[in-house]
Amino acid sequence: MPTDLRKAHDELDKIVDVAFGSAKPCTNNDERLEILFKSYIRMTKK
């Protein structure tokens, strides 16, 4: 992946992490998936 595209993905990941409830940017995709699934469960229970 080109460097500029990788950088854009990394920046977007940080924004999404916080938007979905992480106190800090995730360090890997497993952490990110856990946050996203917990957020999904929380939103679909309403």
UniProtKB/TrEMBL annotation:
Domain MmeI-like C-terminal: 1-45
Pfam families reported in the protein's UniProt record: MmeI_C
Name of the molecule in the record: MmeI-like C-terminal domain-containing protein
